[in-house]
Amino acid sequence: MLAPLVEKVSTLIDYLYDLFEMILGAFPNSLSAIRQGARPVLSVYLRQVYFTGLEALKIIMVTALLIGTVVITQIISIAGGGSESLTGKVIVWIVVRELAPLLTSMIVVARSGTAIAAELAQMKIAGEIDYLESLGIPCATYLIMPRILGVATAVLLLTVYFEVAAVLGGFLVATLGWHVPWEQYSQGVFSVLTMSELAASLAKSALFGLFIAAICCRQGLSVGRSVTQIPQAATRAVMQSLFLLFLIDGVVSLFFLL
Amino acid sequence: MEFAVKFDNVVADELQEKVSFAVTGRCMTAAVTARQEENELLVRLMLGLARPLSGEIALLGEDVCAASEKALNALRRKVAVVYPTGGLISNLKVWENLVLPLEYFSVCPQGEIEERGMSALQRVGYAGGLMELPGHLSLYARRQVGLARAMLLDPELVIYDEILAGLSGDQRDAITGVMETFHRESPGRSSLFLTANKDAVREIAVEARIAIKGSSLHD
Predict the structure, then answer these.
(1) Is B22:B217 a contact under the CB 8 Å cutoff?
(2) Is A40's CB within 8 Å of B96's CB?
(3) Which residues contact B47 (CB under 8 A, 6 or more apart)?
C-alpha cells in the first residue's frame, strides 16, 4: 500500500528536479546570449513580456478592482461600521499576501501557459525545433530561456499592478459606499504593508512565473508526432501549473510565517 | 577532408537496413534514397539530432556520435540544410527567418546583415514580402527563402532535401541554376542532394551519384 505512494512522491520529486534544472539552466543561458549579443533571443524575451504582461494588463486590472470590491464589501459586512483602519489591514493581508500573486498567475496560466505549450508543441510536430538545432541554435537558449524569464518578469509586474489596483479599488468602494476617509484607510494599509510582506508577495510571483513557464515549455516540447497531442500538452501544462502554484504558495507562505 | 559525409554500417530505428555510404568532399553529389521519409532521418543522423543504434557517422571529418552537444552545434554551423518545406520557423517573418542565424551568432554588423540578406533574396529571385509569415507563402517561395538563408551561412556542406519536388519546370530550372552557381563559388564546398526520385537527379549537373539502399553503395 505504501509502495505506490512512495513511487508517486519519487516521480514528483524527479519532476520538480527537472523543472529546477530547466529554470537554473535558463540563467547561464541568458548570460551566454547576452555575451554573444544575440538580438533574436532578446526579441523572443520582449515578445513574451508583451504577450504575457502587456496584453493581460486589462483583464488583470479589472479582476483586481473586482477583488478589491468584494474583499472590502465582505469586511465591512462582517465587521460593521467603525472598522475603517481594519479594512485597509485586511485588504493587505488577503490581497497582497495571497490573492494578487495567485490570481495573477492563474490568469497567466490560462492565457499564456496554454499558448506557450501549444506553440512549442506545434513547432516540435512541424519539425521546427530540428530546423533551429540544425542551424546550430540550441533550443534551450533560443526558445526556453527567454520564455521562462519573460513570463517571470511579466508575472512580477502584473502582480504589482494587481496589488495597486485592488487596494485602490477597495478604497473607492469603501469611500463611495461607506464614506471611509483615505487617511484611516491608508493608515490601515501602511501599518501592515511591511517590506517582508512585499518581499513575500514578489518572491511568490517570481517563483510562480518561473515554474509556470518551465512547466509549459516542458509539456509543449514533450509531444511526439501527432497533432492530437497539442491540446493534450496544453491541458497537462495548465493542470500541472495550477497544482504547482498551490504547492509553491503553501511552501513560501510557511517559509515567511516561520 | 576526403569525405564530407560518411555512414558506416549505421542502424537506426526507422531505417529498414544497415546503411553505408560516403559523400566525397568538394563534390556535387546526388543521393537517391528508398523513401522520402528516409531523407529526413538521414539528415537528422548526419547532424547528430538523432543517434544511431549502432554504426559510425562522420560529418566533415568529425565523428558525430562521439561529439559533445557544444561540438555538434559548432559543426552544424558549417552545414546548411535546405528542407523540403524551406525549414522556416512559422512564427518568424520571412526577413527574421532569413537573418536569424546571422543575428544569433552576431557574425557581422546590422548594416552588413541587411545588405547580405537582400542580396541573397535577389539571387534566388524571391519576389514576395519580407514581412510575410511562412504560412502565407507558396512552397516555391519558402524554398527560395530557405535557399537564401543557406547561402548566407557560407557553409562547407549544403544538404538539399527534395528541393525540386513539387515545383514546376521553370521553378526547378531557376533553383537548379542558383544551386549550381552557389556550389561553384567556393572550391571547398560540398553539396549533397537527397531525393527519393531518381528522375530528379537527372536535372542537376552532379559529379557523383549514389544510391542509399540498405548497406550497398552504387557509384
Answers:
(1) yes
(2) yes
(3) A133, A134, B59, B64, B72, B75, B76, B79, B81
B73, B91, B106 member nearest A36 (Cβ): B106
Q: Is residue B131 less than 8 Å (CB to CB) from chain A?
A: no
With contacts defined as CB-CB under 8 Å, which chain A residues touch B88?
Answer: 131
Task: Answer yes or no: are the C-beta atoms of B39 and B27 closer than 8 Å.
Answer: no
**Does A142 contact B104 at a Cβ distance shorter than 8 Å?**
yes
| Residue carrying the nine cell digits 469611500 | A175
Cα A190 to chain centroid distance, Å, stands at: 25
Q: What is the dihedral of CA A235, A240, A144, B14, to 10 degrees?
A: -60
Which is it for the CA torsion A41, A45, A51, A52, positive or negative? positive
- Strand ranges inside chain B, DSSP E: 3-11, 19-24, 28-33, 54-59, 62-63, 79-82, 157-161, 190-195, 208-213, 216-218
Question: What are the angstrom distances between the C-alpha of B67 and each of A28, A139, B50, B64?
Answer: 22, 18, 13, 5
Q: CA torsion A40→B71→A210→A58, rounded to 10°?
A: 20
Contact B103 A132 (CB under 8 A): no
Q: How do B54-59 and B62-63 pair as beta strands?
A: antiparallel
User: B176 falls in which pLDDT band (50, 70, 90)?
Assistant: very high
CB-nearest partner of B83 from A38, A119, A131: A131
Q: Residue B136, CB half-sphere, CA atoms under 13 Å: how many?
A: 10
Q: Which residues of A touch B43 (CB under 8 A)?
A: 134
State the cell numbers at A57: 494588463
> How confident is the model at residue B90, as a pLDDT?
95
* Residue contact A136–B100, C-beta within 8 A: no
- Contact yes or no for B76 and A134 at CB 8 A: yes
Residue A214 corresponds to which amino acid?
A
Strand partners, B213: B216
- pLDDT single digits (tens) A4-32: 889 988 988 898 898 988 898 888 877 77
ipTM: 0.92
Rounded distance, CA A97 to CA A4, Å? 36
